[in-house]
Amino acid sequence: MKKLILLIIAFLFINVGFAQDKYFTKNGTIIFDATTSTSPEKVSAINKSLACVLDTKTGNIQFSVLMQGFEFEQALMREHFHENYLESEKFPKSIFKGQISNPSSINYGKNGTYDVSVKGQMLMHGITKALETKGKLTVNNGKISVAANFSILLADYQVLVPRLVGDKVGKNATIKVDCTLQVLNN
Question: How much is the pLDDT for 165?
Answer without folding.
Answer: 63
